[in-house]
Amino acid sequence: MSSIAIDGPAGAGKSSIAKALSKRLGYIYIDTGAMYRAVALFFVENNVSDGTDSRIESLLEKLEISIKYEDGAQKVILNGEDVTGKLRLEEIGKLASKFSAIGSVREKLVALQRKLAQKENVVMDGRDIATTVLPNADVKIFLTAKPHTRALRRYKELLEKGMEADINDIEADIIKRDERDMNREISPLRQATDAYVVDSSDKDLDDTLTEILFYVKRKFDERS
Ligand code: DC
């Protein structure tokens, strides 16, 4: 099986690139952030407010996350319920960042992610894919952009959805989330030493995809 790992901070364009890339290559796209978001939702529904709650281990035993695909789009199933529509809220993203620092949460999700990559050719995006989940991935990309650019993209996305937003609040949140994701003890967000780094600050989606496709082709040619 072949795998492409895409890591990077929030709002760098990972999911748009991973989706487009998987379509081009006929691979399955796995959005690991959505899995951490589903865990956050599950904890919120069970009134867990932080990582010190003594019920976390027993709740994790009751947590079942699976992935299915409908018209090529990933659906996240949490204990039998399709929760995909509930995962994109900013608040859930923040909580996912917080709860993703818990070792037992990571263990459970990393095991699931590895299992998925054993069965299919995948493009997987997240924070620790190239460093921890799939250290032998065929291609490793680290996709980043300046915090202000990332905030501006999120801001536009929210406005397009008809939601109210404040660009300064979004930028502050993005910086806080990056700090937490980069400084946690277990599998922090880090650039793998053998990753190809792409800064999308001054590029649109098409240009970023073209650059990445070019690199992927080169890696695949080297392999064959
Ligand atoms: O990519 P995202 O915004 O959907 O991710 C939500 C949070 O989940 C992110 O802030 C950190 C966590 N996460 C992680 O720790 N490891 C991953 N592989 C993916 C996401």
Q: Could you please describe the fold and organization of this structure?
A:
- It is globular and about 50 Å long.
- The strands form two sheets. Strands 2-6-1-7-8 form a five-stranded parallel beta sheet, sandwiched between helices. The protein has a three-stranded antiparallel beta sheet with strand order 3-4-5, covered by helices on one side.
- It contains nine helices and eight strands.
- The chain has helices spanning about 15-25, 30-45, 55-60, 90-100, 105-120, 130-135, 145-160, 165-185, 205-224, and strands spanning about 5, 30, 65-70, 75-80, 80, 120-125, 140-145, 195-200.
- 2'-deoxycytidine-5'-monophosphate binds near residues 96, 97, 126 and 177.
Q: Keywords, please?
A:
single chain, alpha/beta, 3-stranded antiparallel β-sheet, 8 strands, 51% helix, 17% strand, binds 2'-deoxycytidine-5'-monophosphate
Compact summary:
The chain has helices at residues 14-25, 32-45, 56-61, 90-99, 103-119, 129-133, 147-160, 167-183, 205-223; strands at residues 3-7, 28-31, 65-70, 73-78, 81-82, 122-126, 139-144, 196-199. With 224 residues, the chain is of the alpha/beta class. A hairpin with a 2-residue loop joins strand 4 and strand 5.
- Spans with pLDDT under 50 lasting ≥5 residues? none
Q: Give the SSE order as H and E letters.
A: EHEHHEEEHHEHEHHEH
Mean pLDDT: 95
Strand order in space, largest sheet? 2-6-1-7-8
Bound molecules: 2'-deoxycytidine-5'-monophosphate
